[in-house]
């Protein structure tokens, strides 16, 4: 029963120790939450922010997991290894693009409202 939580926690610790991008995404998430708290966001806007944050973290975790499996399978240069890693990293780019759009739609009008 406890193993259900222990192994994912070990995975989380591995990400914190070895995946600089994951840590950067976590720090960015904290900054976005602080920025969101400065504005009076609606419940729906917070939900979009949460979806944006978790989608990037989720894709980064999957990307790292793919990298581990590829590195386990081969140390040599392999075209399929390249495809696996490159396509997995594109998933992170897609999630980041979605999150950037969500962030712009929510924050840009509020920043303009502050300036006016
Ligand atoms: N075994 C391999 N065969 C072919 N190409 C590879 C192989 N390993 C890595 N690559 C290429 O090098 C790139 C970087 O791979 P690497 O494992 O260093 O990821 P990374 O730079 O640590 O990624 P991230 O910054 O997301 O952690 C891959 O996207 C891929 O294009």
From TrEMBL:
The chain crosses the membrane at residues 22-39, 46-70, 90-115. It is found in: Cell membrane. InterPro entries: DAGK, DAGK_sf, UDPK. GO terms for molecular function: kinase activity. It comes from the Bacteria. It holds the Pfam family DAGK_prokar. Keywords: ATP-binding, Cell membrane, Kinase, Lipid biosynthesis, Lipid metabolism, Membrane, Nucleotide-binding, Phospholipid biosynthesis, Phospholipid metabolism, Transferase, Transmembrane, Transmembrane helix. Belongs to the bacterial diacylglycerol kinase family. This is Diacylglycerol kinase family protein. It comes from Macrococcus equipercicus.
